[in-house]
Amino acid sequence: METNGKYFIVGAFVLAGFAALAAVIIWLGVANPTQNYAYYQVYFSDPVNGVGKDTTVRYNGIDAGRVAKLQFDADDPKRVIVTLQLDPTLKLRADTVASIENVGLAGGSYVEIKGGSKTAPLLVAKAGQEDPVIRYKPSTLQQLSETVPALVKRFNVAGDRVNDILNDENREQVAETLRHLTVATEQLNRTLVLVGRTSASINRLSDDTDSVVKNSQAQIYESVGQIRALTSDARKMVGSVTRLSDDLDREPTKVLFGDRREGYTPK
Fold first, then answer.
1. 202-213 pLDDT tens trace
2. What is the pTM of this model?
């Protein structure tokens, strides 16, 4: 009986401990707001290499959540739907974008979220969407991986065309063209030298012309002064002649013989 009593007490303590642990877990799930998450989706149209469940999600470089689920899009076989579990305090904007980035060249992958502009409206789920959808933007590395093969192909095509152009016959034609171009360049240089000399001559002629014009202006100003003086003397002469003519009309004898009248002499 005593042994059974001990087992009962131990069992009671174990049950009480489990009950206390369950109560703590329930309290943490209800009272602690950090256990609540916000869910968003990203539609990736490129391969999601290196991304899986629990992959880190960063917001502007800071850890902000994890990948909760990956699934294929039933309507588009090229697209993968990735569900993100994020910090609920994040206020994502409608122009927010998500991309897959890598830690260095050989490091692991993570999902990077870049915040939008503060003037954009908040990102919310649209009609028919389970969660708000973040717009996908290929990373720089993905863009390079897509662009480089096309560039290599273009370089190969260009190389083939150059090889076709620079065959033996075309090389001779190119060499002949270069010789003509050299001759034309020499002629152009001689022409430019001649033009330079002509320009110098024109400049000297212009300077001489300016000097002549300045000297001519001085002479013209001097001649104008003399003409003005002659004009003034001519006007005076005309005035004198006019007065003489008037005197001849009034008293011709007086003008010719002088005034012969005797003055009054008192007796």
1. 777 667 666 655
2. 0.45
